[in-house]
Amino acid sequence: MLIETRPATDPEIATLVVAQQRELREADGGLEGQATLTHDDIRYLAVVVDGRAVACGGLQALPDGGGEVKRMYVRPAYRGRGIARQLLSALEELAHQHGHRRVCLETATYLPAAIGLYTSCGYEPIPVYGEYVDNPYSVCFAKRLPVSA
Question: Which residues form the signal peptide (predicted)?
């Protein structure tokens, strides 16, 4: 397994993000609207197994100096192997390298596995923020990152 940076224009990142959005629409019964798929201002990481990207996640800088984890997704056939946990750790390291002292994220109330992952990795609930405020299914979390000595 390899975790590497990929541009937002990478076709495998685009494929994973489309799959993530499709799965979210299926899980919420079509309640949420279509989100913009990829953003040029997100730094993406891909998890590569046997030469194929099987998971992705991104980090976007926030105006307050923090970072936001975006587009976490692991292909269903690769779940349960600890890939999401390793990817989240790599995203936190990326945030730390870019000077972020805090990372936050949004997920949905109907994604208990995601909520379990984030809370088990030290994320704590915070008030819903930004574009998620009006979404009744959004829940947000944050984690302080260690400060360099």
Answer: none
Q: Among all chains, which residue has been given the structure tokens 């800088």?
A: 61
**β-strand partners of 4:** 46
Residue written as token pair 């730390």: 96
Task: Please count the residues of the chain.
Answer: 149
52: phi then psi, degrees, rounded to nearest 5: -125, 135
Question: What pLDDT does residue 88 have?
Answer: 98
- The whole-angstrom separation of Cα 139 and Cα 149 is 32
First-to-last CA distance in the chain? 30
What is the dihedral angle through the alpha carbons of 77, 23, 67, 89, rounded to the nearest 10 degrees? -20
Measure the CA–CA gap between 11 and 14, rounded to whole angstroms.
5
141 token code pair? 């979390």
Burial track 22-39 (b if 16+ CB lie within 10 A, e otherwise): eebeeeeeeebeeeeebe
Round the average pLDDT of the chain to a whole number and report it. 92
Query: CATH assignment of 2-144?
Result: 3.40.630.30
Q: Could you give the CA distance from residue 55 to residue 86 in angstroms, rounded to a whole number?
A: 11
pLDDT over 70 (residue 95) = yes
Q: Does the global pTM surpass 0.70?
A: yes
